[in-house]
Amino acid sequence: MSVSPNPQAPAESCPIRTMPEHVAFIMDGNGRWATSRGLPRTEGHRQGLEALRKTIRHAGKVGIRVVTIYSFSSENWNRPATEVSFLMGLLKRFVQRDLSELHEANVRIRVIGGRSDLEPGILALLEEAEDLTRKNTGLDLVVAFNYGARDEIVRATQHIAQRVKDGELSVEDISEDTLSQNLDTGGLPDPDLIIRTSGEIRLSNFLLWQAAYSEFYFCDLNWPDFDEAALDQALDCFCNRERRYGGVDAKAL
Ligand code: IPE
Ligand code: IPE
Ligand code: MG
């Protein structure tokens, strides 16, 4: 896979100033993609990985700086054991096969989600990916794995409470910024645009805090069918959104 280390050109219809800096993807519909073709759900996940490769490459090309992908939620453990183990294997293969190319393309990988109960082999691979790419300066690829926003907020709260207990922080000094910095995404910009495929219109415990002022884009395509044109369409739509952050449309003043 080749991911442009530096943005070459923004999507034609989207001036660079309105390009989202951070786009997050809820990659949904792999199972439906497969079953509608008479295939096992696992085939949908396999094809979904191809769509992911295309998306990362295209996002880098058009100048998006941060891409977050929802790859496995803290609730996805509720799936049949065979599907969970296939998904674990797929993640391992993705890291093993794609890591060197991502590194060469200057992509920096960061993993968000709970780590304490992960299988040691998977944890080691994820840490290896982060360590190898830590100093890269191109696209930030944030992999939400074993991720649940409520779990993330609880862990951040526990960390902050411990610092108060240890006398490192006073209660009055706890601010929105304190919470933001203690989330797994600390230091990253909030997502400007969240894209969910497969026609579902919900967040499913994804980036609840960070999505406060995100724009949402829902499309009916199942994730394995998502491609460059679908991303361009979402970006075009984003370009026409007016973000007010609680203020007033400048043109209305
Ligand atoms: C998204 O596709 C992939 C993961 C959640 C890991 P799904 O597997 O949820 O596909 P559907 O929603 O059942 O079609
Ligand atoms: C959200 O999709 C999680 C990922 C895409 C990894 P789900 O398919 O798990 O969400 P629900 O169950 O339909 O809400
Ligand atoms: Mg789903």
CATH class category name of the domain at 23-148 and 193-239:
Alpha Beta
Any ligands, ions or cofactors bound here, and which? 3-methylbut-3-enyl trihydrogen diphosphate, magnesium ion
What is the radius of gyration? Answer: 19 Å
Strand content: 5-15%
Strand/helix succession: EHHEHEHEHHEEH
| Residues in helices, as a percent range | 40-55%
Assembly state of the chains shown? single chain
The CATH homologous superfamily of the domain at 23-148 and 193-239 is named Decaprenyl diphosphate synthase-like
Number of H/I helices: 7
Any idea of the CATH topology of the domain at 23-148 and 193-239?
Undecaprenyl pyrophosphate synthetase
What global shape is seen? globular
Mean pLDDT: 94
3D architecture notes:
With 253 residues, the protein is α/β, with parallel strands linked by helices. The chain has helices spanning 30-35, 41-62, 81-104, 120-133, 149-165, 176-182, 228-239, and strands spanning 22-26, 66-73, 108-112, 140-147, 193-196, 215-218. It has a 6-stranded parallel sheet, sandwiched between helices. Helix 2 (41-62) packs parallel to helix 3 and helix 3 (81-104) runs parallel beside helix 4. The radius of gyration is 19 Å and the shape is globular. One 3-methylbut-3-enyl trihydrogen diphosphate (IPE) is lined by residues 26-28, 70-73, 76, 200, 202, 204.
Name the features.
253 residues, Undecaprenyl pyrophosphate synthetase, 6-stranded parallel sheet, binds magnesium ion, 7 helices, globular, binds 3-methylbut-3-enyl trihydrogen diphosphate, alpha/beta
